[in-house]
Model the fold of this input.
Amino acid sequence: MTHDSSCIFCKIINGDIPSAKVYEDEAVYAFLDISQVTKGHTLLIPKTHTQDIYSTDEQTAEKLFARVPKVANAIKNAFEPIGLNLLNNNEAPAGQSVYHLHIHLIPRYGENDGFEPNWIVHTDDYSNDDLQAMAKQINERIS
Ligand code: 5GP
Ligand code: ZN
Done:
């Protein structure tokens, strides 16, 4: 497994830093976030060190996301939340503070459970033509 000796999540995978482990297999490691947003807040990470979603190869991404349902279902069975959010922050302006790719699994218990996605304000600023042009701009850059 490639790892970065200065990375705290690589240290957690290696057991150099203790963690509350939820699940582990050959490709991924899941553990409780030390700062729980809601009860059962879990981080799922690839064992291969990759900084963020941009630098992640398809195989690593495939294996990582493939494990999301089983961890999500285990959290659901354990704590009976009424919902669950997946979150992945990339780069500091988006809230990334640890530079080893991770998916947050945040079980939800109600409006005032601590998770506040109130920053999600949808707009109607884009016409259908705008959306088509933007989609083309992105599509042309898919490699
Ligand atoms: P980010 O802000 O990068 O999306 O998420 C990083 C998360 O890692 C934060 O929610 C933070 O609480 C958690 N975290 C940081 N250091 C540690 C640690 O040493 N152990 C555990 N379990 N979680 C950590
Ligand atoms: Zn790492």
Remarks:
- Residues 8-139 form a domain with the HIT family, subunit A fold (CATH 3.30.428.10).
- The chain has a mean pLDDT of 95.
- DSSP finds four helices and five strands in the chain.
- The first helix runs from residue 8 to 14.
